């Protein structure tokens, strides 16, 4: 009798442990994956004019897809980067001992099986497989050790992410593709801002990043120029095609101002903490932009 009563409890405890552990693996990347991609799912829901019950179910299913999406990335990334994380990110589960290497490998195998199967059920198998191929190139075949591969991984990953987000709901429209392409180009060229905070760890493991290849100052000047032209790209490609309501104008101004702030920060504010904050602002810019798509792509 005791065994019968405790079995469900053990199952629930195990499930809760896995959920919490997965959150520890993905929490640092939530603002570039789960949150913004779910916003794009919501934009597609509004565009498709789904009923409230259909919309709620679709958003939950989409959020779960992107949880698995980033979980695969973080497991693979952290398995090959333990020594670097001891320097740059000592809070990660493999460094703190919250997960063993063997446990992480087993979870990665499970996720690599479950994720494409779930993508197939949602009708986005091609984008799930695209993401898995990118992950293999990044973590198993050396893309992650060179700045070109790292930036392409992030940029093409935006396509795999946002195309799936929209297609979970409906057929991808030309306007949705305009957003996807604009954000892909932006992320590809400007994602090296994340490497500014990790210079010490990257040098220790002999990773080739933009700051280490071209020099920290040149990289900062390049990123400064990129963020400086950001407001023009935001306005012309993302906001101007929508009807000019006051809230769209306000979002246009806010996103442009944040881009200009980043342009100044990457040059004037240096050091690990300042660069970490700059990267967090980039993540928040990305999430805010995709939140804006909910009412600009309706």
TrEMBL record:
Signal peptide: none annotated. Gene3D superfamilies: UbiA prenyltransferase (1.10.357.140). GO terms for cellular component: membrane. GO terms for molecular function: transferase activity, transferring alkyl or aryl (other than methyl) groups. Keywords: Membrane, Transmembrane, Transmembrane helix, Ubiquinone. The chain crosses the membrane at residues 55-71, 109-131, 152-170, 221-239, 245-268. InterPro entries: Prenyltransferase_related (IPR050475), UbiA_prenyltransferase (IPR000537), UbiA_sf (IPR044878). It holds the Pfam family UbiA. Its main location: membrane. It is found in: Membrane. It comes from the Bacteria. It is a multi-pass membrane protein. This is Ubiquinone biosynthesis protein UbiA. It comes from Streptomyces minutiscleroticus. The lineage of its organism: Bacteria, Bacillati, Actinomycetota, Actinomycetes, Kitasatosporales.
